[in-house]
Amino acid sequence: MVASGPALEHISSRPHHPARVKYRWLLILALVFPASLFASPARSAILYQIDPSYVSIRFVVGNMFGMFSTTGYFKQFSGSILLDIETPQNSHVDVTVASASIDTAWDTANKMLLSSAYLDPAQYPSVHFVSDQVVQLAPNHVILHGYLTMRGITRPQDLDARLEGYQDQPGLGPVADFVVTGQFNRRDFGMTSDYPLVSWKVSLKINAHIFLMPKSSNAP
Quick check: is 1 in a domain? Predict the structure, then answer.
């Protein structure tokens, strides 16, 4: 997976220059998903396509009054990320997850989550997140305001995105690590069964290890 463009040439660990700050947080919007560049470097808007090879989408829900927890992953997802360098507020994230791809490595939990009381992929085959606003809190930290749709119900949802590490690796070029977190209440999406054995709160954590095209690869 490769990526290129002006937003990727200004990331630095040196003290924050205003221009570097702008480009660094724009890279954070590539946050969740490793991507391939599909836009010309001359354009201010840079479109990335999601490549799930280097990303994990994990959820954790408490069980038995907080004594235990269940962790699972979504294995299939797709989408796109649009970065607008000239007008960062116009940047955009759109992600679709296959409901049936959930996996907890525990057959009993999988059957429960795939039932009509929970994700019900037979009736609602996908979970969808789309952003509508990006707010910068720090050079390495943004909040994505958007909407989460699950079981045919759409609610406002915020995701916290952080650039956790960046380095040049010999032979690979720039590599960036992102962590994105969020929470939602399953009752808001019609999943009301099994409380208090299963907590209302569901925590999300998304990790991405992103390989970026070396600068020398930008040449025509």
Answer: no
